[in-house]
Write a structure and sequence with these properties.
InterPro entries: C14orf28-like. By secondary structure, the chain is of the alpha+beta class. Helix content is about 20%, strand content about 30%. The strands form three sheets. Strands 2, 9, 13, 14, 15, 16, 17, 18 and 19 form a nine-stranded mixed beta sheet that branches. Strand 7 and strand 8 form a beta hairpin. It is globular.
């Protein structure tokens, strides 16, 4: 496995350009590196025979206590990452550059869920690799299984996120990256076209300035129903997002009707879907379905991300073999086995995985 996952474009940026953040190369383009080398966290790459998910399963299997947490922190909030710049970068003296991460909860919960989904299903791993890249997926799983969590976050920031999605400041020879914001901006929108959908529309008026339109979306944003539906509200909202409809045309000066076709996934049914639940209140969530019918496929609830508005903090809950775990990067015991399913009232998102059966 390659060690050079992320690189500094120019070490001098840290001293000569205080207004800019450190640039990075993509995994697929290692051409112009100046010799900066990735330094792993001490003790992070152990000669382990078990993956992280196998360790978690062992915890579940051997649990007899009422309160049970994983034996060490998993994806703790924030992180400190050190890069050693080689001789080509700065004279003959190696320079150690510290990168501090803040407010990483906007990606932490989803990284935990992504790991469980990919490590649990080899078919999904291949499918996700088509969108995120095989090398990215392999590095991601390797780093998670090595407990190299800060490097996992750096991998996501530099390979998946754009510079405008986070704030960075340089303090002498240290870079601070702040991910304060929204997890759907920092994670969901960076899944490329994994969940992209298309819906065509046609206006009935021949005077319409734009009769034919194609509406592309990379995320699934569902709104709570205005009135209580006959079936569960989340399935109804998903059906409404995908179903054909007829509305008044919104083009300027047009009084025709706009007919929308059935919305379809651009690349077939994805291995997992993330439902953006930010518009939903707790009273709207009287029922969260464990299964969804979508695009001629059956999807099963894998987990959720939760949002504490007072603390502006995200956490996550997910299932492994029917047992629920709660993850919160701010806690010292941050991965806890729950003795009952969590109350999914403060939802930011719901994550469903595609079932084998249709």
């Amino acid at each position: 496995m390659e060690r050079n996952v992320c690189y500094l474009k120019d070490i001098e940026d840290l001293n000569s350009q205080p207004g800019r953040g450190v640039q990075s190369e993509r995994l697929d383009d290692p051409g112009y590196v100046l010799g900066a080398e990735l330094c792993v966290e001490p003790g992070s790459r152990l000669n382990k025979t078990k993956t992280l998910i196998e360790e978690i399963r062992a915890l579940i299997k051997n649990n007899e206590a009422e309160y049970c947490s994983f034996w060490r922190p998993v994806l703790p909030w924030g992180g400190v990452y050190t890069i050693r710049a080689g001789q080509k970068a700065v004279s003959c003296i190696p320079l150690y550059v510290k990168i501090s991460l803040k407010n990483t909860c906007t990606i932490d919960g989803f990284l935990m869920l992504l790991y469980v989904i990919l490590r649990d299903n080899q078919t999904f791993r291949r499918e996700v690799s088509l969108f995120l890249g095989k090398r990215f997926v392999e590095h991601f799983l390797y780093l998670m299984d090595s407990y190299d969590y800060t490097t996992v976050k750096i991998l996501w920031i530099w390979d998946r996120m754009s510079k405008r999605q986070y704030r960075s400041e340089i303090h002498q020879a240290a870079l601070e990256i702040d991910l304060f914001g929204n997890e759907h901006e920092n994670f969901t929108k960076n899944l490329e076209n994994l969940m992209s959908t298309i819906q065509e529309s046609y206006c009935t008026s021949c005077c319409c300035p734009c009769r034919f339109q194609e509406l592309l979306q990379n995320t699934i944003n569902i709104n709570p129903p205005h009135e209580l539906p006959d079936k569960d509200p989340i399935q109804s909202a998903v059906d409404e997002f995908f179903c054909p409809k007829v509305i008044l045309c919104q083009e300027y000066g047009c009084n025709g009707l706009r007919e929308f076709s059935q919305r379809e996934f651009c690349h077939g049914a994805p291995p997992f879907i993330i439902l953006n639940m930010q518009m939903w209140k707790s009273e709207d969530l009287y029922y969260v379905p464990y299964h969804l019918a979508l695009s001629d496929h059956r999807y099963s609830l894998e987990g959720a991300t939760l949002f504490n508005q007072e603390e502006h903090h995200y956490s996550a809950a997910f299932q492994i073999d029917g047992y629920w775990m709660h993850y919160d990067g701010l806690r010292s015991d941050n991965l806890i086995l729950l003795n009952k399913p969590p109350e999914l009232l403060l939802l930011s998102s719901l994550v469903y995985v595609r079932s084998h059966e249709k």
